[in-house]
Design goal:
heterodimer, A: alpha/beta, Rossmann fold, 6-stranded mixed beta sheet, 3-stranded antiparallel beta sheet, B: alpha+beta, 10-stranded mixed beta sheet, two-stranded antiparallel ribbon, 12 helices, 12 strands, about 55% helix, about 20% strand
């Protein structure tokens, strides 16, 4: 088995003090190997983004360690973190986060500049990457002239520019339609396989399950066992059975993330063959 | 390297243009003030600079015409004239007063000279040299005061008839009139004295000046460039405090504008800067980015300010011929240095804001 490229041990992050103290992430252990796609799912506010920010050396954990390619960003001086981010990680964001003042080519070239590649080599490498993603006709466009799918492909090209060991993707398909979302999911899978880099994705999107080697569920800042999770048949979201709304359909219990999904499901069922049960208080 | 600094600064052209214009206007204020000041000091010393004399002789300790009284005995001219290297000597009398016309009053130098001699106006564009009780005035002041050839004006407590007009001898400070030496002698009651001697030399003027000082006790002899420099220096010293106040005010405005422009640019690009930090932009690179933006702003503004100031000079000369706006290289250098300092100071607040941006903001949805 290959050595892990990214390891997090007993990772904890708390915000606030005293009565307002909140543990956003606690006791998280994670190991990711080269070529592996790990999908971290969870509800809004479950700590996914906090975890991703810590893994990406943008946020210092309250306790715990992170090892990425043998280096520990949790103990590294602040001045060395930008260099680590520029050379070790590739970032893909939900809102694409392309630099609006730059062209498509310059966005990718800038990431190369940060990693120490400048001048013509940077320009040529940026063009090569973008051409590989089918964006050769958009090189001199600004981000506001691109479609959502094109923006995300530029963002992925930028994330790969420095040949990262780890790609961290935050809701990479959230702003994309179904087909483009699938394309982006497959692209992330291909990157992990072809370039042997680890891809860590945090997302609500169940479409990403099909490209993931492992799926982790983050609930209240800690990983839960996915064996105990159920899938909402309407939206496809994973839900915790004991916290979720459910319907009894024949001999089976079906779980939902929201009353909307439950009602939609119920309406689709002819003749009211099942009975709604209200699980947790206040969730009706 | 991708020119992120320029791209961020100039992508929003309207904001960039307004910022550069704001800084340029402040710099124009400083440059134009200095230019008008330089022009006026040049105008004040114009009598000296346009004189055919190589050496000016005055009473010992008197090194200027402006704000000075020089009294030399009448025989000094003969003693100077006998010295080797001296080709000619022309005594002049000098007083200052105000000339009044139908349209107002104006401070004036009054030079008394021998008509036909070398101490009078360089050119007469209308009328002729002064006869007894007459004077030659400057055309610009004459127009402003509503005076024409043949009119009567009052100077030094007596009436004078305008016999002719010369040109180029009026500044924003004062004007110049020329009267006969004998008339001014009589008005000033200085029968046996002169104010200055104009000396024409053959050969080294500096050596002749030194020779005059050595041979004639109680006199100061200066070459024309030196005398002119002393004249300008005196005017400059008299106005230094005012100029400094005006210049500092202009530079404070420029600093505030640069600071605001950069701050506005930074605020508009906070997310972009957060993204750059997340991708690995170092604090040093961020400092360079903000300072470079400040540099671009002030450099562009400085170029624009110089162009505007030169254009302003042409307009001012056309509209108000008495005002001479001269942009000197030293003034440009000062403005350049001041702009650099102002840019650096103006960048401090935006830089502090940039360095505080949390890279993890990239995970938040833009509002």
């Amino acid at each position: 088995m290959t050595q892990p490229i990214l390891t997090a041990s007993r990772l904890k992050k708390t915000f606030g003090e005293g009565d307002t103290k909140v543990a956003a992430v606690h006791d998280v252990d994670l190991t990711v190997r080269p070529g592996e796609v790990v999908l971290i799912m969870g509800r809004s506010g479950s700590g996914k983004t906090t975890l991703l920010a810590m893994l990406g050396a943008m946020l210092r954990p309250t306790s715990g360690t992170i090892l990425v390619d043998g280096a520990d960003p949790t103990t590294m001086p602040e001045s060395r973190l930008p260099g680590l981010r520029a050379t070790t990680f590739g970032f893909v964001f939900q809102d694409f986060n392309l630099l609006s003042a730059l062209t498509v080519r310059e966005n990718v070239e800038f990431a190369l500049n940060l990693a120490g590649v400048t001048g013509r080599p940077a320009r040529e490498q940026a063009e090569r990457l973008l051409t590989g993603f089918g964006l050769s006709h958009r090189l001199d466009f600004r981000s506001d002239q691109l479609s959502g799918g094109e923006k995300q492909r530029v963002a992925i090209a930028r994330a790969l520019a420095n040949q990262p060991l780890v790609v961290l993707a935050d809701e990479p398909t959230a702003n994309l339609d179904s087909k483009i979302g699938h394309d982006i999911a497959r692209l992330l899978r291909r990157i992990a396989t072809d370039q042997r880099c680890a891809v860590v994705i945090v997302s609500h999107d169940t479409r990403l399950k099909e490209v993931a080697d492992r799926i982790l569920w983050l609930e209240d800042g800690a990983f839960r066992n996915l064996d105990q999770m159920a899938t909402d048949p309407v939206c496809g979201m994973s839900v915790v059975p004991q916290d979720a709304l459910h319907l009894q359909v024949g001999g089976e219990v079906v779980y939902f993330c929201s009353s909307n999904c439950r009602d939609e499901y119920a309406a689709a069922e002819a003749g009211g063959r099942h009975t709604a049960h209200h699980s947790p208080p206040g969730r009706a | 390297m991708v020119p992120v600094d320029r791209r961020m600064l100039f992508t929003d052209r309207r904001r960039a243009l307004l910022g550069v214009l704001g800084v340029a206007v402040a710099l124009v204020m400083a440059l134009a003030l200095e230019g008008i000041f330089a022009g006026s000091t040049g105008q004040v010393s114009r009598y000296v600079e346009t004189s055919p004399a190589d050496v000016f002789v005055s009473q010992q300790g008197v090194r200027t015409i402006h704000m000075s009284i020089s009294v030399l005995s009448a025989d000094t001219a003969d003693r100077v004239g006998e010295l080797p290297g001296v080709e000619w000597v022309e005594p002049i009398l000098f007083a200052s007063d105000a000339v009044a016309g139908p349209e107002g009053r104006r401070a004036t130098y009054v030079f008394g000279y021998q008509p036909g001699g070398l101490g009078g106006p360089r050119t007469i564009i209308e009328g002729g040299e002064p006869g007894p009780g007459e004077l030659v005035a400057d055309d610009s002041a004459a127009t402003a005061l509503g005076i024409t050839v043949g009119d009567e004006v009052e100077i030094l407590g007596r009436p004078w008839r305008v016999s002719g007009l010369t040109t180029g001898m009026t500044s924003i400070v004062n004007t110049t009139v020329y009267v006969r030496f004998d008339d001014l002698t009589q008005v000033l009651g200085r029968g046996d004295s002169v104010s200055y001697l104009l000396v024409g030399t053959a050969g080294d003027s500096q050596a002749v000046a030194e020779q005059i000082e050595a041979a004639v006790p109680g006199v100061e002899a200066q070459t024309r460039p030196l005398f002119s420099a002393e004249e300008r220096s005196l005017v400059r010293e008299m106005s230094t405090d005012l100029m400094n106040i005006m210049s500092v005010a202009a530079l404070i405005v420029a600093t505030a504008v640069i600071g605001l422009v950069l701050y506005a640019t930074i605020l508009a690009r906070l997310r972009d800067i957060g993204i750059m930090k997340a991708l690995g932009l170092t604090p040093r690179a961020m400092t360079r980015l903000v300072l470079t933006q400040a540099g671009w702003t002030v450099a562009t503004a400085l170029l624009l300010a110089v162009a505007i100031t030169y254009a302003l000079g042409s307009v001012v000369t056309a509209v108000a011929p008495d005002i001479d706006l001269v942009v000197e290289p030293a003034s440009l250098a000062r403005a350049g240095i001041a702009a650099a300092v102002v840019g650096a100071i103006g960048a401090i607040a935006p830089l502090r804001r940039v360095l505080k941006i949390d890279p993890a903001t990239v995970f938040r949805r833009p509002t």
